[in-house]
Structures are given as C-alpha cells and as structure tokens.
C-alpha cells in the first residue's frame, strides 16, 4: 500500500536501532504520551458514529470547526487528501458528502466575515475545540458567534448547534457541563498536534461521511508493524535527520499532488513544533520543515534545491493511482508540436513522470533523498501516512534528545499579550 | 504608508551602500533586466483598461488563468491581499467585482476537475500565459479545454474566450497570430517571477475590477525614492541577509493577516529561485524563504523560531488598519473569565497586539528581526510592497554575487521528462 525507499547512506549501528525501538516502546507504555494507543480505540469510533447518526445532520450544510493549530490542521489535511478522490469500489461516488468544512482559526476580521458569509445558525454545526478552553482565538470566535446569532448560553438552539471537544475538567468542559452541551473529551496525555485520531479529527471527519474506522485501521497497520520491530527504515531515517541536523537543518517534503497542500501544513507544525527545542543538553536544536507541492513548485522552489546550499534533505511523495483517467487529448497546437510527446497520456501519468524526472535531477546533485510511494489515497492509506509521520517525529525527537511533546517557547508571547491589554 | 524598522546590527560600510545603488542603477540602465522600468508603463495600463472595456465582461463569471509559477503566483497574491478589504472611500463596497479567479496550474487530474466544475465556455474568459509556450502544464491544460468544450482553433468562440500572454515571436505568439487571438506581449527582458507588473498580472487584475494604475503608482513611489538613493535601509537589509547566509540560511516572512497567504508563496518563489544559485565564484549559495501567517502560525512554527537553532532571520509584516470594525463582544463565558481581557476590543486590535507580543518574544531571543508596517491594504500599498521585495531580491542577488534572473537548475528535469516519454 505504501512503500518507502531511501537514497542516502545511514550510519546507524544495529544496537542503536534496537535502543530506539525500546525507547519508543517505553514511552508508549509509560503513559505520559498518549497518542500511541489511539489507533486501537474502536469504542470511540462507535461512539462518534452513533452521535453523528443521532444528531440527524441531513439539513446541515456547514461543519464549522472553531480551533487553531493542532485543533484544525489535521482535519483540514485529511479532508483535502480524500475529498477529491472517488471511492475504491469504482462506483465513482465521492468518499465524502457535500457539506462544507469551514475553519474559524485566525482572528483576521476580514477572513472571519468571508468565512461566515453563507453560514447561519440553522444550517450549521459548530465544533469548539480547545484543550484548556483558554485559547484566545477560539474563545473570541465563540463570543462573536453568540452575538452574531443573538444567542444566550441557555438557549436550546445553542445546545443543538454547538459541540465541545476539550480536556476533561478543563474550564471549557465545566462550561459545557453547566449548559448541557454535547462534549467529547481529549485524553490528557495527547497534545494538540498529535490529536488527529481523537474526536478533534474524528468527529468532523465522520460528519463529512468519511470512514473513520478505516482511518484508524491504517494507523493500526503501521503500529503493529512498528511494534513488531519491522520498520528499521523509519528508525534509520529519523537517525539520519537528527544526526545531520547541523549540516542539513532543512527537511523538504515534496508531494506530487495538490491533495497534499494541507498535509504539508500539518507536517510543518508536527515537525517544527515537536523538534525545535532546547535539548536536554541545553542546546537550541531542531529541524526546519518545508512543504511544497509538485509539479507546481518545480516552478518556484526546485531551483534552490538543485543549485542552492547543500543544507536540505528532500522527501518526495508520489501517489500511484489518482483514480482519475483524465487524458491530455491528441491535439496538436500549431507551432507547439514539441509538446506533443505527452499527447494521449493521462494527467496521472504526466504528474508521476514529472515526479520521477524531478527526483532524478535532485539525485544527480547528491542531495539526501527518499521517496514515499502511496498506491492510492484512501482512508486506510491516509491513516497510515499520518501515523508514519507521528512515529517518525517521535523517533527524531528521541535522537535529538528533546521533549517532543511540549511547546514552552510559545508561552511567553501569551503572557506579553495579556499584559498589553491589562496595562 | 509603509514603514520599515530593523532590529539587527548592519555592518555595511558607506561606500558599499553606494556601490550597491550603482550596481542596481547600472543593471536598470543596461537593458538586460527589464522589470525596473515596468512601473512607468502608463500606456500599458491604458491599453489593458481599454481592452477590458471593449471585451464586455458583463456576463463573464470566471477568469481562468492557465499558467504556472511566475504566471500565476503574483496575480493570486495581489487578489488575496485586496479581495477582502473594502474601498478607501468608506463606501464599504469591495475593491473587486464578483467574478471568480481560477487558476489551472497543477496537472493533478482531480484538482483540474474540481476547478472546472462550474466553468463553461460561455461564462468564462481563459488567459493562456507562457513566455515560450512550451510549458508542458500549460499546453496540456489548453488541449484539455479545447477537447472539453469541443472547440477547434478556427472557431470564433475560441477567439472570443481565449487570450494569450507570451513573448513576442514565441511559438505561442505565432500560434495566436495564425488564429487571430488577442495577444499581449511580455517584454523579453522580464522573467516570469518578476512579471507581475506586465499583462501577466495586470490583465486578470483589471478584469477583476482593481485599479491597476494605482498598483503601478505604488511601485513607482518606491522606485523614485530608491533611485534617489533614499532607501539605505533596504540596502542594509539585503547586505545583512547575504553576508549572513551561512549563519542564517533561512529567512522567515511572518505576516499578520490571512490576506498574505499567497503573497508569502509569491515571495518564496521570488527569493528562492532568484538567489539559490551557483555563484560567480562557483559556490552553491542561496537563502531559504519561509512564509507563515499570524496569528495562526504562532500555533505551529513559532516554537521552532523561539527555541530552535539560531539559523533564521524573521521579518514581521503588520497591517495597521484592516478597515473592519468587527468586535469581540463583551460576553463572559462562565469558567473562562480569564479570556475577558480582550472583550470589547476589535479583532483588528487583537491580531495587531498578537503581532506585537510575538515580536517581543522573538526579540528577547536575539533572533535577527525586522518589521514592515503597512497602514492599509490598497492597490497603492500593495504595488509598493511587491516592488519592495523585487528590489530587495535584486540587492540580495548583487551581494551574493549570483545571476538573480535565470533558473538553470530546473532545465535538467524537463529534459529527463521528455526522454521518459520518448524512449
């Protein structure tokens, strides 16, 4: 389903591979890091599916997610990966229903107005997501909506159209309890950027009609294989990135399909925020993630990879089967006969040939390179990919000797912000 | 209108500043680099405005730009910067009409279908943009459209709905001449990523109702000031980036408004592709651009800036006036009283306070930092900003001792692609 090939020379010793597996197994069993156990939570899938059925979403046109960072990026990534492809069963219906997925993230007032222009209380479900409830962007959006729809927290309409996802016993949870809102809890030991397989991702994705059981199934496939010590390539790759973090501080993810646009953004948060840390040795360490999309970014970023400083690694992602037979017709444009070599091929063939050609041209420059090939984009393969990058992040964090799961560097700004208003 | 402040220590000598001005003036007068003279081309503005009037675009719902890289990024950037804000005259009408701006860039077949779902020949104008005409993505899209709409090149409908922008005498130009299409020419000495002030950007932006004369006017404002040697800060900044390219290989543009999403992408191409080169000294040099948006990316990338390696510079962009008075209502969410400090403020105030707070927290880390403040987003200020980054790129290229205007590194991939199909 998914194949990984590395074109760089790993210098890891066998015992180091074993140590890395052991460190991850220990972390998974220790209980402080909860994301490892999410793929098996079949009971959660059942509960969310039952909730969506019972909620009767027939007349709902908009699923509005009020959340930022880890509360929005994963859902956006998965919806984009899957929304354009048709179902496996050849019936050619889409995987997803026609509801709009809207995010209230940024507090840019012009964007807020643009996003809400077709949103009414009656045609929408609002999902408020915040671990603590204290996220200023999220609470400000909620307050704005309450005023816009002339609601009070006691109204039945508020209960009918707002759902909360938060940590158990958080202030937001207490609020939801007081006013009888539907609540889903986040496990306390799962951080925002690792929360896609909690209700944070599963609830909106289920409302859109995706098979969330399959999503977890894909993650579980990889988990089983990894915990059976069958994924040495992942360990080698994380080791290579971490040990070369000074020489190659930049990791480029070059995905050959527009479907990866938001997956790239999800990866940027996961990789950047998890690994950019003061290490246990007191050093400023980290790896800078960059996500680009082919073939478009052959026309923007490729030149820098090919001729710029040798400070980058590149991972290419290729999708074998776009489930779309659209062809470049056998038409000759007079004076442009030299473009005819592609006539009669599918666009699928063209974009993959571009991926191969670009990869060859990067390889020729002796840039550290690897390739991930996905057979087709389905809930199962996407679940696998997401968990692949989560595990890879944990491994890289182990080798960099950092706490992969906190984000102390962003707290100061929040304190300064509050002071600005209080003084 | 636009203010720039630097919080790093420049070590440039006065004579080096003078030399840099002289090098740019020489380049501008030499004739090989044409973008410098675009802001004065008032005749082009008149011609494009006349064309749009004559074309009678009343029934046109979609402006479809068929182009990639430099042929699409600038137009997308400017439309996004201006589409959400209202006009200066307080009439609160938008700057732009309601036509959709659609790009056929990538050859991802699922994206092509998604993009075209509401596009018919009758309700759309198609602008084919390619310097040579040989861009495989662009010709493939044209062939696909011709088949989809059952057109032949001789049809009047083809002439009515397709416009071409290309180099004079290019194969695409010859094609357009043969079939009597409307054509606008690109100056031969203006490369794709510097082409936004040619018909590449001006034609679609004019069709959308923007004041393209004002856009050029803003660019001209900066040009006059720069050519009067009044922009030493720009020279110092470019010098600082270039001379510290090994210590700080990554330049982050942190824009505090969702309006900058595509401006960031335009900047990434301009900076990455212009500066990532084998220098005249035979070295692989370059600077890696990263564009992020606040406050969203406080929740994804900020941690890496604050605690990660000191390999980055940061430029923050702040918009004083969003022309939008949307407020955070004075509502208390029980249990979340600690978020009340923001109640009664506008979202405009909140996002700018977040920008200031984040800037302070970055400054405390002694990361090299500068701030660009824009009073409001108008055609004029946007034209200024675009030209600011073009000039800054030319200056950085001068200090890095590279050819800023070519892109030899991307040619090999195109050759390999063709071979893949011919063998």
Distance between the termini of chain A: 57 Å
Structural class of chain A: alpha/beta
* Residue share in helix of chain A: 40-55%
> What's the SSE pattern of chain A?
EHHEHEHEHHEHEHHHEHEEEHEHEHH
Question: Quick gist of this model?
Answer:
The first copy, chain A, is an alpha/beta fold. The first copy, chain A, contains 15 helices and twelve strands. The first copy, chain A, is globular, with a radius of gyration of 23 Å.
Describe it.
2 copies of one chain form a homodimer. The first copy, chain A, is an alpha/beta fold and 423 residues long. Chain A has 2 domains: 2-28 and 215-408, Glucose-6-phosphate isomerase like protein, domain 1 (Rossmann fold); 32-210, Glucose-6-phosphate isomerase like protein, domain 1 (Rossmann fold, 3-Layer(aba) Sandwich), CATH 3.40.50.10490. Chain A has 15 helices and 12 strands. The first copy, chain A, has helices spanning 14-30, 42-55, 73-83, 109-115, 136-148, 156-161, 171-178, 199-207, 212-227, 232-243, 261-275, 302-307, 347-363, 379-400, 411-422, and strands spanning 2-6, 62-66, 100-104, 124-129, 162-166, 182-185, 250-255, 277-278, 284-285, 288-293, 312-321, 368-376. In chain A, the strands form 3 sheets. Chain A has a 5-stranded mixed β-sheet, with helices on both faces. In chain A, strands 3-2-4-5-6 form a 5-stranded parallel β-sheet, with helices on both faces. In chain A, helix 3 (73-83) runs parallel beside helix 8 (199-207) and helix 11 (261-275) runs parallel beside helix 14 (379-400). Chain A is globular. Chain A starts with a strand and ends with a helix. In chain A, 54% of the residues are buried.
């Amino acid at each position: 389903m998914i194949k990984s090939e590395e074109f760089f020379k790993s210098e890891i010793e066998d015992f180091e591979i074993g140590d890395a597996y052991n460190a991850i197994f220990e972390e998974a069993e220790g209980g402080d890091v909860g994301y490892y156990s999410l793929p098996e939570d079949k009971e959660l899938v059942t509960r969310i599916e039952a909730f969506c059925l019972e909620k009767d979403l027939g007349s709902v046109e908009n699923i509005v997610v009020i959340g930022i960072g880890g509360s929005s990026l994963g859902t956006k990534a998965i919806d984009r990966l899957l929304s354009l492809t048709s179902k496996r069963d050849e019936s050619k219906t889409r995987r997803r229903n026609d509801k709009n997925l809207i995010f209230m993230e940024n507090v840019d007032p012009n964007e807020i107005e643009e996003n809400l222009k077709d949103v009414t209380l009656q045609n929408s479900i609002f999902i408020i997501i915040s671990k603590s409830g204290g996220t200023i962007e999220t609470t400000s959006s909620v307050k704005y909506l309450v005023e816009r729809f002339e609601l009070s927290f006691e109204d039945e309409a508020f209960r009918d159209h707002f759902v909360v996802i938060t940590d158990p016993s958080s202030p937001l949870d207490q609020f939801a309890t007081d006013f009888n809102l539907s609540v889903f809890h986040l496990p306390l030991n799962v951080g925002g950027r690792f929360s896609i397989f909690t209700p944070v991702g599963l609830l909106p994705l289920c409302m859109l009609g995706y098979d969330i059981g399959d999503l977890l199934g894909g993650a579980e496939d990889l988990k089983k294989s990894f915990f059976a010590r069958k994924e040495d390539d992942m360990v080698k790759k994380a080791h290579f990135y971490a040990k070369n973090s000074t020489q190659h501080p930049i990791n480029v993810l070059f995905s050959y399909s527009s479907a990866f646009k938001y997956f790239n953004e999800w990866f940027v948060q996961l990789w950047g925020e998890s690994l950019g840390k003061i290490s246990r040795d007191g050093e400023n360490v980290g790896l800078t993630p960059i996500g680009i999309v082919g073939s478009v970014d052959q026309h923007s970023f490729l030149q820098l990879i090919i001729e710029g400083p040798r400070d980058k690694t590149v991972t290419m992602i290729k999708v074998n089967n776009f489930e779309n037979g659209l062809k470049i017709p056998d038409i000759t444009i007079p004076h442009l006969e030299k473009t005819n070599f592609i006539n009669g091929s599918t666009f699928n063939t063209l974009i993959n040939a571009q991926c191969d050609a670009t990869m060859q041209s990067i390889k020729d420059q002796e840039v550290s390179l690897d390739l991930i090939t996905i057979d087709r984009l389905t809930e199962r393969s996407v679940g696998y990919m997401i968990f692949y990058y989560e595990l890879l992040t944990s491994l890289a964090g182990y080798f960099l000797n950092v706490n992969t799961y906190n984000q102390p560097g962003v707290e100061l700004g929040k304190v300064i912000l509050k002071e600005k208003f209080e003084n």
